[in-house]
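Bug #2210: token dump truncated for Transcriptional regulator, TetR family?
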Amino acid sequence: MAVTQRRFDPERRDRIISAALDVIAESGVAGASHRKIAARADVPLGSMTYHFSGMDEVLREAFTRFAATIAVRFEARMAQATTFDEARAAVVDLIHEDLTGSARELVLTQELYTLAAREPLYRGITHAWMKQSRDALVRHFDPSTCRMLDALIEGLSLHAALDTEEHHRTATAEAVARITTPAAAHH
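Reproduced locally. Full output below:
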């Protein structure tokens, strides 16, 4: 009698999480299923229930990874700035090069936001992401300005995902300058 050996695959869980992000980017959260994710990850369907308690866990892990990846890039971009003007330019670069440059990431961001708006379980991911963003910004700007910049960044990302008109760097740079100019200078 032949005994089937279970193939040891230490990267299987990781591949499933990556595949989940790919499926969500293509089909949305609503179109993601255990079957689609397993097929994309090239794993048996049973691996889904072996590695995850359910779809909520898959989605939480996938979106946690996605948010962490974006936050690390955000942090690196802001850490490179050594002057106030470089920090302003880093915010513009972040918006135009890091956040709105990838249709896949725009879709994933919007899918996460929609899920978090409906399901409190996912708000922890978005809150942690916002905190990391503001922590990176606070090196260069006061906390109130950080909140405004964070809102600008998120808003322009949403516009880039949904608007039919192109968003120009010069308009973004002007918005960043206005937000980061002390109130006394406006009068």
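Output looks complete on our side. Residues 1-6 have pLDDT under 50 and may be disordered. Marking as cannot-reproduce; reopen if the truncation happens again.
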